[in-house]
Amino acid sequence: MTMMEVKRKVKSSQPQTQTVTLWTQSGVEKLQDCLETTHWDAFLSADTTIDDFTDTVYSYIKFCEELCLPTKQIKRYPNSKVWFNNEVRQKIKDKDIAYRNKNNNPETFRTTKLELRKCIETSKKIQRDKLEAAFSAKDSKKLWAQMSLITQYKKERQSADSEDSSLPDKLNEFYARFDRENTSIPVPLPCDNQDPPFLVTEQETRRALTRLDMNKAAGPDNIKPRLLKTCSKQLASVFTFIFNWSLTTSTIPYNDNDGG
Q1: Does the keyword Nucleotidyltransferase apply (predicted)?
Q2: Cα–Cα distance measured from residue 122 to residue 103, given in angstroms and rounded to the nearest whole number
Q3: How far apart are CA 257 and CA 30, in angstroms?
Q4: CA 20 – CA 22 distance, rounded (Å)
Q5: What dihedral do alpha carbons 243, 249, 255, 259 form, nearest 10°?
Q6: Measuring CA to CA, how many Å separate 31 from each of 64, 151, 158, 189?
Q7: Which of 99, 133, 217, 221 has the most crowded CB, counting CB atoms within 10 A?
């Protein structure tokens, strides 16, 4: 009986195309002017709820971002290294052109080859210095972020979905066991002193927006923290209105993106 040798073909991953937003100076100024001249009261009417108003404000902010900020299509290769930047990519192109003409001009080929080697060494040194700086500063967050870029480590997301249909009933029975003995509704005590309602000022809202981390991902509302921080002056008034409306009515605005 003869054994047949089977060789598995090498699977190649196609590059992924990603759309990125370019935060240019002109685009940011245009976005700030667009939000500065917006009359937020125009979104209000007699029957407008806090959910409708909040959703309209979020949609309008996203519309202004897409209108004012330019975008760019980039390709991400599965085997690209963190030090493989645009400068290294351009040096490789120059070397390929010089390689085709090395018979006519060998000196140019040697020069471009040397420049490519120096460019790669410089790019690797920059990444190494960033890693050492984060380690020296004892900044575990930046250190882990830099190591994740170098090693291309991505943690697999664990899904919370379960095929057990009886799991919700089990959880309800588990947590409801504490309330079996005391089922009466407590009567609220009368309050003599009426404290003034808690309200947020526009300065507090703006201060909170300026403290946001621009490197964080967008939340359920799909608005980037960089946009909120960059346009904190223009958005402080409308967000203060939403916060105070939510506090006075004891209502959390509903978001269609996160289901609540």
Answers
A1: yes
A2: 29
A3: 27
A4: 6
A5: 140
A6: 6, 36, 37, 51
A7: 221
The rounded distance, in Å, linking the Cα atoms of 260 and 253 is 8
Q: Judge whether 124 and 83 are in contact, CB under 8 Å.
A: yes
Tokens representing 257? 């993106």
Total residues belonging to the chain: 260
DSSP state for residue 41 in the 8-state scheme: G
In this prediction the pTM is 0.65
**Amino acid making up residue 66:** E
| 16: β partners | 76
Mean pLDDT by 10 residues, the chain (260 residues): 55 78 94 94 84 93 95 80 86 90 87 93 90 85 79 63 71 71 64 73 95 87 92 95 92 66
For the chain, how far is it from start to end, CA to CA, in angstroms? 65
Work out the burial of residue 231: count CB atoms within 10 Å of its CB; fewer than 13 is exposed, 13-18 middle, 19 or more buried: buried
The kind and range of the H/E element at 240 are helix 232-249
Rounded to 5 degrees, φ, ψ at 21 are: -95, 135
Number of Cβ within a 10 Å radius of residue 68 = 18
Here the tokens at position 138 are 């004892």
Encoded amino acid at 241, one letter = F
Q: Alpha-carbon distance 143 to 59, whole Å? A: 36
Amino acid occupying residue 68: C
Give me the residue spans of the domains in the chain. Answer: 83-151
Residue 50, phi then psi, degrees to nearest 5: -65, -30
Among 234, 192, 229, 189, which Cα is nearest to 213's?
229
